[in-house]
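Still learning. Any example?
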Amino acid sequence: MNNSELLKELRIDRSAPPPAPARTGLWIGLGVGGAVLALALLGWAVFGGDDAIEVKTADVTSADSGGGSASVLDATGYVVARRMATVSAKITGKVREVLIEEGQRVEAGQVMATLDPIDADAQRELAASQLAATRSEIAAVQAQLKEAEANASRLSGLAQQQLVSKAQFDVAIAQRDALRARLQTAQRNAQVAGSGLRIAAQGVDNTIVRAPFAGIVIAKAAQPGEIVSPLSAGGGFTRTGIGTIVDMDSLEVEVDVAEAYIGRVQPKMPVEAVLNAYPDWRIPAEVIAIIPTADRAKATVKVRIALKAKDARIVPDMGVRVSFLEQDQKAAAAATAAPRALVPAGALRRDGDQDVVFVLREGKAERRAVKLGGNIGDSRQVLAGVSAGERVITEAPASLQDGADVEVAEAK
């Protein structure tokens, strides 16, 4: 066979019908894919169907409905009393009777306790006797002076008639003048004795301990039979006070503000105070004064705050949190004009340079970037990102991601 015939054998016959495809491999591939899909669905149902993250949520509320101003600074401090006194006796003595109890209200001048007055009574009796003696001496001198003046007057006439010697007349004049001086001395001694009696009477009055002002007794420090003294006993058994009273109308708040932020605080600035014991009670207050000295150890400045509410629940040494509110009317108006929402502080997270929250939406966590405003109590103002009526996630694992399935934990 020559070369031309060989080439003809290699030529493709395009008129012949194409061969039938092999369908067996296709059906095998489809069967394997279906089995893999079924296994995947079964695995998800068994292992992933209940893999929702348990979270806690809270409602977003409106800041405008509360009518509050934005906080420019928060601080903590304590309730203090401007008028508080540990009342003691002015003298050292033994307690005879204590007339107060803790929690009792006393008025100004009310007797709180009495001391044993035996020594003071003896001193008063002695002073009274001394005064009586000086008054008796005055009466005796006055009688002698009256006689001496009469004698001097009689001798004066006789001396002019030269019926008595001039020496006798001079003696009579000298006796009269001596008695006059003696009378003045006795009168002054009587004044001194009178002053001594008044001092002794004051000593008796000092055995009675009275309240210096109206208030509430918060401590009872002495019992009958104990020795009290206005001076420190140096660790002995002598008490230095009868009890402690507090003027509840003088209660105020003292807070320490960091030096870096003291410029934000001004006198008469509105303040909102929240007692640790009553976290839902917001007390209106106002800055009284900024104490013009700093604590170098803590780098803070003390600020006095007046409470505008008087209530029996407020007692000294209670812990309190205060929020210094906006004072500038323009800033307050601008903040009021912007739509504001309140979210709990626990819902806020920091993601890089953004503040974010997770919003509960159809069983999933939706990440939202937010723009924050000031503090109002335990909540933060949100100027953009969420709106009132939505629900934010307050407690969730730190690994929570956008779009994750979540389940709200039931309240226990």
Summary: Residues 118-160 form the longest helix (43 residues). Confidence is low (pLDDT under 50) at residues 20-27, 44-49, 333-337.
